[in-house]
Amino acid sequence: MKLEEYLEKTAEDVDLELDRLFGAAPGELSKASAHLLIAGGKRLRPAVTILAADLVNKGCSREIFPAALALEVTHTFTLVHDDIMDDDSNRRGVPTVHCKWDTPTAILAGDVLYAEAFELITRSIADNLAKVLSVEILARTCVEICQGQHEDMSFEKRNDVLDYEYIDMVGKKTGKLYAAAAAIGGTLAGGNVKQTQALHDWGYFSGIAFQIQDDLIDLITPSEKSGKDQASDLSEGKQTLVAIKAREAGVDLSKFRKQNLSSEEIKEAIDMLEKAGIIDEVRKTAEDYVNRAKEMLSIFPDCDEKRLLTEITDYFITRGF
Amino acid sequence: MKLEEYLEKTAEDVDLELDRLFGAAPGELSKASAHLLIAGGKRLRPAVTILAADLVNKGCSREIFPAALALEVTHTFTLVHDDIMDDDSNRRGVPTVHCKWDTPTAILAGDVLYAEAFELITRSIADNLAKVLSVEILARTCVEICQGQHEDMSFEKRNDVLDYEYIDMVGKKTGKLYAAAAAIGGTLAGGNVKQTQALHDWGYFSGIAFQIQDDLIDLITPSEKSGKDQASDLSEGKQTLVAIKAREAGVDLSKFRKQNLSSEEIKEAIDMLEKAGIIDEVRKTAEDYVNRAKEMLSIFPDCDEKRLLTEITDYFITRGF
């Protein structure tokens, strides 16, 4: 099966089950909790959990499907709380929870999802030790995501962030949840320590590449295609890998740090960055992480699941939005 | 051992271990997470977990001590998030997290504690199935606490809350965490379904009695003794059991719904409520829950732990602050 088809099929399964579990719950708080969760999304993290499980123990993914949902629910909880912190008003094509309801309801809606994620782990059909280990992985991951988000916010007040600090931050904020998605799938499927660690590291490195690509997309992809403002990171002076490498190379982007950049200005900035080799350098960094991720899968024999995970890693840095 | 001594000893153990685990972690987010947690408190929930475990399997409480901490960590996470929603500025004698830091940091600090609570459950020495069940109990409990807090906030916009709605709300907001504290202690100690259910129900009914007493304390205890504003619920027109029963009895408290009530006004309100028999009726309701709670323990043979749990229930409605 082609990756695209596989992801579509998984997303359908995930949508159906999330809708069944959360779509019809009564009460405003349940509605607020379900709001972003059932508004769609690529469902990449559940796909990773399922693939990791089938890679370790072909066919077991139906049994651990609730854990795959747990990863999407965790991701959504972080989005609901992040949207409050960043005061974002739209997400997945719908108003954010604190805008549609209010901040107290959004805090509670995120907290509800947080608990549901842990409960979903326990709903899998798997060895109890594997479930306990998966709860541990998810808990540790949530702490790291919070630390990553806190670092991301603290970077906004700084202009001297170094590239390794950036990598560490996105590793926590994005890498660790992909790492958990893969490691939990492998653990519940009965994988040994070596397999689980390899899957964890695959997810971690892939997630870092994903986030670097996200920053490139923000800069390069026109808003008609991405559905988001182009070059918003540039206009906000955000410490992305592009901004950090530009500063290190002596490229001054300060004149673009203003609201409502024109398409000419965005083009000028991209030209400057391309001429200085910054964009190539950032792409190269993302590719390095992609290669490190793929290397981690070398301990597994060739099979469809391994191929699809490899293709996911490639997709992370080839996608245009 | 007397209850007072027992609670003091347990609080010391809890303080020591929380300080060791959270007191010295580096970084602002860790400091914000630890802030309220290590600021003290009665540590009643961990004491309940320990007593429930020793009631089921004498001497096993050292092995499940991390789970006892998990209950205190969960309680603190809810306080950190509730303080944001209610915009309270002081708690446990220190500034609240969102006041000392800011709202985004407080959201994240609560989220960190949330994950740590689940991780602490897994750190107990117990059967893996018991750990999985405990994770399930904690997760379900957290959902219910959130629902209780949401109902509590929605009651502020209503003047027609009925007593059973109030009981259901405080049952979720306060009862369920005591229920979880006892049920998790019993489960990890190897208790059977009957024992665990009895402990759960003991905690649930005790917690409801605790909250009714909390509302009475707010009304009756002078601020010199309680450290909080006296009659703040009355002044805010909060739908407590006192307010609901007063409304049902045709006692009009609307003139006390204003800021800065004088001690004469508070005395007048208390006199009115006493004359109408409201305070006795509310006390009677709390006593009913205390009796229902104690009944739940009848399946256990007499022992120190059973006596101490019974005394905790009595203490919940005899304490003056």
Rg measurement of chain A, Å: 20 Å
Model regions low in confidence, pLDDT < 50 over at least 5 residues of chain A: none
User: What is the strand tally of chain A?
Assistant: 2
What assembly state would you assign to the polypeptide chains in this entry? homodimer
Which chain pair has the greatest contact? Answer: A-B, 40 and 39 residues
Element order, helices and strands of chain A? HHHHEEHHHHHHHHHHH
**Coarse morphology of chain A:** globular
Mean pLDDT, all residues of chain A = 96
Main pleated sheet of chain A = 2 strands, antiparallel
Q: Fraction of residues of chain A in helices?
A: over 70%
Summed up, the helix count of chain A is: 15
Termini gap of chain A: 23 Å
Portion in strands of chain A? under 5%
Briefly note the structural class of the backbone of chain A: mainly alpha
InterPro entries (chains A, B): Isoprenoid_synthase_dom_sf, Polyprenyl_synt, Polyprenyl_synt_CS
Protein name (chains A, B): Polyprenyl synthetase family protein
Cofactor (chains A, B): Mg(2+)
GO biological process, one term (chains A, B): isoprenoid biosynthetic process
Strand and helix layout:
2 copies of one chain form a homodimer.
Chain A (H helix, E strand, L loop, with lengths): L2 H20 L5 H10 L6 H13 L8 H22 L3 E2 L2 E2 L1 H4 L2 H20 L5 H28 L7 H26 L4 H28 L2 H4 L5 H5 L4 H8 L14 H13 L2 H19 L7 H15 L3
Antiparallel strand pairs in A: 1-2
Overview of this protein structure:
Two copies of one chain form a homodimer. With about 325 residues, chain A is an all-alpha fold. Chain A contains 15 helices and two strands. The first copy, chain A, has helices spanning about 5-20, 30-35, 45-55, 65-85, 95-100, 105-120, 130-155, 165-190, 195-220, 225, 230-235, 240-250, 265-275, 280-295, 305-320, and strands at about 90, 95. In chain A, strands 1-2 form a two-stranded antiparallel ribbon. In chain A, a hairpin with a 2-residue loop joins strand 1 and strand 2. In chain A, helix 2 crosses helix 6 (about 105-120) and helix 9 (about 195-220) packs antiparallel against helix 14. The two termini of chain A are about 25 Å apart. Chains A and B meet through helix 4, helix 6 and helix 7 of A and helix 4, helix 6 and helix 7 of B.
